[in-house]
Amino acid sequence: MAKKGQYTYEYPHPAVTADCVVFGYDGKELKVLLIRRGLEKEASTMAYVGEWALPGGFLDVEKDRTVAHTAARELKEETGLKLSYREFREVGTYSDIKRDPRERVITVAHYALVKLAEVQADTDADKAEWFAFGDVPSLAFDHDKILRDAFSRLKQNIHFEPVGFELLPEVFTLPQLQNLYESILEVKFDRRNFANKMKHYEILSEVDDGTPRRGTRTPIKYRFDRENYDRLKRSGFQLEF
Amino acid sequence: MAKKGQYTYEYPHPAVTADCVVFGYDGKELKVLLIRRGLEKEASTMAYVGEWALPGGFLDVEKDRTVAHTAARELKEETGLKLSYREFREVGTYSDIKRDPRERVITVAHYALVKLAEVQADTDADKAEWFAFGDVPSLAFDHDKILRDAFSRLKQNIHFEPVGFELLPEVFTLPQLQNLYESILEVKFDRRNFANKMKHYEILSEVDDGTPRRGTRTPIKYRFDRENYDRLKRSGFQLEF
DNA sequence: TGTTTTTTGTGTCATATTTACACACCGACA
DNA sequence: TGTCGGTGTGTAAATATGACACAAAAAACA
Hints:
Largest interface: A-B, 33 and 34 residues
Low-confidence stretches of chain A: none
Order of helices and strands of chain A: EEEEEHEEHEHHEHHEEH
Oligomer: homodimer
Structural class of chain A: alpha+beta
């Protein structure tokens, strides 16, 4: 542990943190990973002890290459989830002078998308919990606003990036994909038109798992065709819904 | 001037700055406001002395309410331009561990749009200069990248916000507006189709300055109809071009 | 001054895109 | 065995987009 008062500067410096909004999808609704504050590190110096909050923590000035690295490191420490710094997308900076009661703390918020089924086992249930997006309790600091902003950003980015495919399992069905889009965009689509549009983009490939379909009731399984998507993206397009 | 070593922390803290990309439009092309480093404050402690850079500077931990306030304050100090903190839109955070050779400095980049004709007189020509966006020299730090990113962000935001109207004078013509859109989006539009679409949105009002138009060569003057725009926005729309 | 060039405003038609909509199949469940 | 619910599929109407030409006058030029 570092000695107190070891680091001095000519002018005051703020502390900098990175916070993570991790979105998952369980096939029905969007979920968010939260932690309960104060169960870990020394609680005495902490604010908002016992409240729910976004995972996140202080930038390691000497080691973290960027704040996205901070986000990845802290997420791992606080929830057990291992993501690469490249998986974080920036939401924004929150710098209000009074946002932390202890000292001036500026946070850079990020969001990340995970395949819930694949990571649920990795999340340390003692510290972290998945909440339905609509059921999130009131959060510490300005994390309520950060969460809302992260969702808005996701909602925008869905038009430019295949966010749906990052949230679904490798193999998924059209109804699942549609449901996810509807959850994020908060609208309803006509099933047939949605299928047509998706088909038109040619970014889905049917998965043939050997078993012949035994009736239309069993939905067709698809896989995201990243190669075609990348080609489309290079030619400059927008996913319209 | 503060005494050296006055501010101590248990853990190292980064310095935080705000940088500003100020876009203007002269009727022909997009312009950016740059400053030459080292002409102001004590140059001895400075990096990149003499090079061109974006206006910006250190967060005043005790006084600046948010980093947008820092941006506004520094822009005023360095270029004479007075903008409200509300006029800055965040571009992103630049936190690479090596981005400043002196100490760890994290910057939050912003952009702002100004009506060039109205502010050109306010810009302190000794310190700052307007450059055509295409003619910007190589900049200090990672400001080249910040500038590119700010432009991309502007290009995206033009679909959601009436950015064109913030760059043009109160009263403008359709050809001016089209030219601006073409500059930002880097495409060409058909004059008639552009006019039709704009007309269709109903966010322009003709300005009647008394003088009857004496021929089609004199373009019709318009004013942005913010009331109609706000109504449209509330009903959830997108400016498509 | 006259001539040429440039700029602007305007409307229609062909094509592409979007939206609305109905039925047949079969598995799940009672 | 019957009913219910979820899935797949195609077409027609409405809407949006994209291409296109001419007339008028200002501006540039000789």
